[in-house]
Amino acid sequence: xxxxxxxxxxxxxxxxxxxxxxxxxxxxxxxxxxxxxxxxxxxxxxxxxxxxxxxxxxxxxxxxxxxxxxxxxxxxxxxxxxxxxxxxxxxxxxxxxxxxxxxxxxxxxxxxxxxxxxxxxxxxxxxxxxxxxxxxxxxxxxxxxxxxxxxxxxxxxxxxxxxxxxxxxxxxxxxxxxxxxxxxxxxxxxxxxxxxxxxxxxxxxxxxxxxxxxxxxxxxxxxxxxxxxxxxxxxxxxxxxxxxxxxxxxxxxxxxxxxxxxx
Length: 263
Hints:
It is built from 7 helices and 12 strands. The protein is of the alpha+beta class. The chain folds into 2 domains: about 5-105 and about 255-260, 3-Layer(aba) Sandwich (Aminopeptidase); about 110-250, Gcn5-related N-acetyltransferase (GNAT) (Aminopeptidase, 3-Layer(aba) Sandwich).
């Protein structure tokens, strides 16, 4: 499949026809946007904008989303903008409306079939599938070590998925002498050909030793067993070179624009 065909499929299945990404959340469709709404601990935001969105309609759409989320009492929500979204100045219009841009990431996609070969782990490191609350705690600790950010929201979302929709969620943690050094997740989207890879953060002292690659291969095998065709990743500059070497194709960039109410 050519990159433009892959991007069109991604837009159609994962954005325009997005499914809720967890229990207790809903996807709402309006003429010009598709958005997800949940609790304050869930991801809330706009996932798709109409490809023919023009300068007049976009102003109304932005104002409507701000009114909608703030009316629900949410302190923040995100507008996920892709580099091919229209109008071309969508990002600038969001900034003018009070949104703040976070660092952009690269959208990568690869066929599952080419990623399932086992990767060698460093000596003393093993992978553990996350299937219970104790495993979630290990994954959260790995996340906090790798990224230096609070893992409370991750804990909430992982526990909810394991309890109410385990068939759509895969998580794994890498342990060195019983201590978590890396963790990763995979979100499965029934009815689509895509599985999304998230996390993959590794503690500083263990980077560059093949753990990230092993986590991708582990999840790719599970995705293949469940019939998914593609893996999708929103990658930082740190991960992008590894993904390119593994055969992922860059389809564009995605930038989170976050609207926060005044404290």
